[in-house]
Design goal:
The chain is an all-alpha fold and 135 residues long.
Length: 135
C-alpha cells in the first residue's frame, strides 16, 4: 500500500474529505489529491497530515502496518547470511540461568508475539555474555 492509499484509507476511517484535510493542514486540496493519486511521494506537512488523520507519519510512509499513532516502526529485514561455526555452549545450568534472566525482562502483560520478539532481540547479547562460561 502506498502513501496515497494510506491517506485515503484514513480519510474514510475518520470520515473527512480531502478538502477538509487540506483546510486543516493549511494546503490546497490539490496537494492532498496529488498525494493520494501518487503524483507526490511525500510532503513537508506529513506530520500534520498524520496527526489530523489520527495516525503516524511512519504508517503513512509504510514503516509500520499499524495505523495507531504510537505504533512501533518495523525494522527493515536484513539479508540472511549463512556461516558455519563450531560453537561451544556453556553448561545447561548456565543456559538456564541466562534464560531465567531474559524472562524477567519481559513484561507480564506482553502478548506471546511481543514476548517472542523481545527474547529474539535480546538473545545475541545474552549469549555473548556467556562466552566466558564456555568450556
Amino acid at each position: 500500500m502506498n502513501i496515497g492509499e494510506r491517506i485515503d484509507n484514513r480519510l474514510k476511517a475518520i470520515g473527512i474529505s480531502q478538502a477538509e484535510l487540506a483546510r486543516r493542514v493549511g494546503v490546497r486540496q490539490s496537494t492532498i489529491n496529488g498525494l493520494i493519486r501518487g503524483e507526490s511521494r511525500g510532503s513537508k506537512h506529513l506530520h500534520v497530515i498524520a496527526r489530523i488523520l489520527r495516525t503516524s507519519p511512519a504508517y503513512l510512509t509504510g514503516e509500520t502496518e499499524d495505523p495507531a499513532p504510537d505504533a512501533p516502526i518495523l525494522e527493515p529485514e536484513r539479508p540472511v547470511q549463512f556461516v558455519t561455526l563450531q560453537v561451544a555452549l556453556p553448561s545447561e545450568e548456565a543456559l538456564a540461568t541466562m534464560f531465567r534472566a531474559m524472562l524477567r525482562i519481559v513484561p507480564e502483560d506482553a502478548t506471546e508475539d511481543e514476548r517472542a520478539q523481545i527474547l529474539a532481540r535480546r538473545l545475541p547479547a545474552a549469549l555473548s555474555q556467556l562466552r566466558d562460561l564456555a568450556p
